[in-house]
Specification:
Beta-lactamase; 16 strands; 2 domains; two-stranded antiparallel ribbon; 12 helices; 32% helix; alpha+beta; single chain; 393 residues
Length: 393
């Protein structure tokens, strides 16, 4: 890697801070099993005067999903879970599901499967007022929070997944793609199959073997000095933002939740999440510790969308990508408007966290900031251009 060129990352990141677009950010570039570059700029907490540092703890939000994919596949390779198993084998809320069709509820032809949850083709949705089924889910999540705040009623991971299953589906499982609460359902299935809480399974199977000591579903009191503040950019300035984000998340990551969200619930650091990147690059092995096998790694690196699904996979930021196992998968880099390699894969999070893994180049990154909605798709393009522009043979 051309380290001199990688230093352009810091210059680019500082510009966003200087323009007042973000409070701060940090990045780690990994080649093989070695971190080759790291930098942190700006502030983790403007109000408290805490700078962004290498060990700053950040909210992963949807960058939780690749970890959930790993957890599921460890059960698959042990023979404890089948990819074609119907979800209803494990969660009663997914029995006798209905599809919402112009105000009517129509029984599904076939139950959703574990694989369809992994590929976001199960028919589930996120709360979203912009379309009918999303609006129904929004109403149910609003009710969830009313019950929580008024009565202290807090469901656990399995109970929350059953709530999801009882809501109408948007489409027949397997026929379309829709970004949704599928990963949260998978966390519950891991809990049912393993007999542990979802968090305990992650600790035993992934976090503790890899020495990921700062990754969890909450930040303990003794680590709060390293926990970054989230910000909302509005009216031309950054304002502190604190919310459960209406995804069933509770306690603002400050207390151990009963519902451990497989789709959005983890916090982590550059060091810890860098081990997830190394794990992917190592085909299931990181620092000499094997978490899953090489055939699982091959499976997780593939685009799983069918021609029937693909027209619904239409986000601008995902141009040129396919999807599978809760992650995007690069097919045509030029369509995404940035340098890259077919086969690169990864995911990002609501507050701007971003990761990618490139098996062919043996290359990966973890990028972290904490701004609602992130700082735009262009940031990821520029960062990738700098990193790929630093590759030397």
């Amino acid at each position: 890697m051309n380290i001199d060129n990688l230093k352009n990352l810091e210059s680019f990141m500082k510009k966003s801070v200087d323009r007042g677009e973000i409070a701060g950010s940090s990045i780690s570039v990994i080649s093989g099993d070695t971190e080759v570059y790291r930098t942190a700029v700006g502030m983790a907490d403007i109000e408290k005067g805490i700078p962004m540092q290498s060990d700053t703890i950040f909210r992963c939000y949807s960058m939780t999903k690749p970890v959930t994919s790993i957890a599921v596949m460890t059960l698959v390779e042990k023979g404890l879970l089948g990819l074609s198993d119907p979800v209803s084998m494990y969660l009663d809320g997914f029995k006798n599901q209905k599809i919402y069709d112009e105000g009517r509820l129509i029984p599904v032809k076939q139950d959703a499967t574990i694989q369809q949850l992994l590929d976001m083709t199960a028919g589930c949705v996120y709360p979203d007022m912009s379309y009918p089924v999303g609006a129904l889910m929004q109403e149910r999540i609003d009710e969830f929070y009313r019950e929580l705040y008024d009565n202290g009623c807090e469901p656990d991971t399995v109970e929350f997944a059953n709530i999801i299953g009882q809501m109408p589906l948007e489409f027949e499982p397997g026929t379309r793609w829709r970004y949704s609460l599928c990963a949260d359902v998978l966390g519950a299935i891991v809990m049912k199959v393993s007999g542990m809480t979802y968090g305990d399974y992650l600790k035993k199977t992934i976090f503790e073997p890899l020495g990921m000591c700062d990754t969890d579903f909450f930040v303990p009191e003794e680590k709060l000095g390293r926990f970054s503040q989230s910000y909302l950019y509005e009216d031309g300035k950054l304002n502190p933002w604190s919310s459960d984000h209406m995804l069933g998340l509770t306690h603002n990551f400050l207390k151990k939740p009963k519902f451990e969200s497989g789709g959005a619930g983890l916090v982590s650091t550059l060091d810890d999440y860098g081990k997830i990147v190394k794990l992917f690059l190592g085909c299931g092995c990181c620092d000499g510790v094997r978490i899953y096998g090489e055939k699982v790694a091959e499976f997780m690196q593939e685009d799983h969308l069918t021609d029937e699904n693909r027209p619904y996979y239409d986000w601008e930021s995902l141009r040129g990508y396919g999807y599978g196992n809760l992650m995007r998968h690069m097919i045509k880099p030029y369509e995404n408007g940035c340098l890259g390699t077919p086969g690169e894969y990864g995911w990002d999070g609501f507050l701007g966290t971003y990761m990618f893994v490139d098996p062919d180049e043996d290359l990966g990154i973890v990028y972290a900031l904490q701004k609602c909605g992130g700082n735009g798709f262009r940031d990821h393009q520029i960062i990738k251009n700098i990193v790929y522009g630093s590759v030397e043979y």
